[in-house]
Design goal:
The chain is an alpha/beta fold. The chain contains 16 helices and 20 strands.
């Protein structure tokens, strides 16, 4: 990861998550749990196990905190917060607030704020904190030497041998580097190096249409960069509901982002002081130019150089091979987080770590397949989702139906000027059980919570109407959808009877 040399914030970050004066402990005779990797999955596993009284060792070769703290969730959301304020200021005239349309961006100050916030949060993941929790923290390179032993080459010199009863493999993933002619020679950024920028590029080419690429494309466009997204996918945010993706694309287009979708990269070259990306679509070539190229075209599990063969741990193209209880082919070793290839979200790494500890120490029956996994993409508007889409009847094993309500019909959204977007519920046609939900809204990640509980608890879509919401609130959209579902249950005959009863009571 790229940290700025001499920057006080990055030095403070390093002092927390990779302190230069760290004294590695002596290894115990045997550990109840050895954790390889200090990202979210590793830290949660270590903290819970140590809290239960287990003897725990944690090994990290780079920075504790992993992707989320250092080059993922934390820094990206700090930039998105600044970009949102820029958009709010420039759009304030529509609410009668004048004098803000020319809001300027001090990019260096935005990035310094991000680094300061990241350093301030880092104590939660610090080496000292985990030592105080009772975890033996080793900063160095861990390699399995046999089925029950991990050798560690310490960063500060020397080595340790860690013998274990159980282990957790939580080494995460890294950005995919595409095998494109000229890319390495021309140079590029990934999310591992993006946050070390101190000067705003005038032009940015983003390769990839997934959440990381789309979020950063919008942020930099709002900061004043000319942004082009090039991707093989024909749809922005290809995992999402097409209606949701269309709304996000329209928002980015208003921010000035250009798109070359359904295009394959052919080569990259330097020309006239810029980095030229040559792409092909439908047999025709085109090109776009950037001062920087951001690669955001997927992630690859970190499984190399870990001695997995010596430990009898099998891998697949996606990552470490695990069963539904997250145990690897070595019965002593479990895996959690991005390295499994199952889900690549911080919340998933946390949830999988809890399953691992339960199964490793309590003969538990926690299963990854039973997780109800939500996610959110923090564009403007945000897109949040949980469960199934309406077209996934094969996965559901039963016919599905859906209901949608636009925020243009919700009073609070009208008053806030946030009418772009919708909430949609997916439910079983016969039973009414909720199976999924999608929200597109400036605060979709927060609004998803009520539907997330309902999907997790296997409630019916009509149950949503029984919740009383404060008025006016955007979250009341769920109650309105429950009302729609209840009205849909009325057969024509029942509707006639109900009208007759109402007339009789007048």
């Amino acid at each position: 990861m790229a940290l700025l040399a001499g920057d006080p914030h990055d030095e403070a970050l390093r002092a927390e998550v990779a302190p230069a004066d760290w004294i590695d402990p002596q290894a115990r005779a045997r550990y109840d749990l050895v954790v390889l990797g200090g990202g979210t999955a590793g830290l949660v596993s270590a903290a819970i196990a140590a809290g239960l009284g287990a003897r725990v060792a944690l090994v990290e070769r780079e920075l504790l905190g992993g992707d989320c703290l250092n080059y993922g969730c934390v820094p990206s959301k700090a930039l998105l917060a600044a970009a949102r304020r820029v958009s709010d200021a420039r759009g304030a005239a529509a609410l009668g607030v004048t004098g803000t349309a020319d809001a300027a961006v001090d990019f260096a100050a935005v990035m310094e704020r991000m680094r300061g916030l990241r350093a301030g949060i880092a104590h939660h993941d610090s080496a000292a904190r985990f030592r105080d929790l009772g975890v033996d923290v080793f900063l160095g390179e861990g390699v399995f030497t046999d089925a029950a032993t991990l050798g560690v080459t310490l960063r500060g010199g020397g080595a340790r041998t860690l013998r274990f009863r159980r282990a957790v493999l939580a080494t995460g993933a890294r950005p995919v580097v595409l095998p494109v002619d000229g890319l390495e020679e021309t140079g590029f950024l990934t999310n591992h190096s993006l946050y070390a920028l101190t000067e705003r590029p005038a032009r940015l080419v983003v390769v990839g249409a997934g959440p990381i690429g789309v979020e950063m494309a919008q942020a930099f466009a709002r900061f004043g960069t000319q942004v082009t997204i090039v991707a093989l996918d024909a749809q922005l945010l290809p995992r999402e509901d097409p209606d949701a993706a269309a709304l996000v694309r329209a928002s980015l287009e208003r921010d000035g982002v250009r798109f070359e979708l359904g295009a394959s990269l052919q080569r990259v070259e330097r020309r006239d002081g810029g980095k030229v990306v040559v792409w092909e679509r439908d047999g025709k070539q085109g090109e776009c130019v950037g001062d920087e190229i951001l690669l955001a075209a997927g992630r690859r599990a970190n499984v190399e150089g870990l001695g997995l063969d010596a430990a009898g741990i099998a891998t697949t193209r996606s990552g470490v091979q695990v069963d539904d209880r997250l145990r690897t082919s070595n019965r002593r070793v479990y895996a959690a987080g991005d390295v499994t290839g199952l889900y690549q979200f911080t919340q998933a790494a946390d949830a999988m770590a809890r399953i691992v500890v339960r199964n490793a120490f309590f003969f538990g029956r926690g299963k990854a397949s039973l997780l109800t996994m939500p996610w959110s993409t923090y564009t403007m508007p945000e897109v949040a989702h949980v469960g199934l889409y309406v077209h996934e009847e094969a996965r559901a094993g039963t016919p599905l139906d859906s209901l949608r309500m636009d925020f243009a019909d919700i009073d609070r959204s009208i008053l806030e000027g946030e009418t772009e977007g919708y909430a949609k519920v997916v439910f079983e046609r016969r039973s009414g059980r909720l199976r999924g939900a999608t929200v597109v809204h400036p605060h979709a990640g927060e609004l998803l919570g009520e539907a997330l509980i309902a999907v997790t608890r296997r409630l019916k879509v009509t149950d949503l109407s029984s919740v009383i919401h404060p008025y006016p609130t955007a979250v009341s959209v769920w109650g309105r959808l429950g009302d729609l579902a209840n009205r849909g249950r009325l057969t024509p005959w029942a509707a006639r009877v109900l009208k007759a009863l109402i007339r009789m009571r007048r």
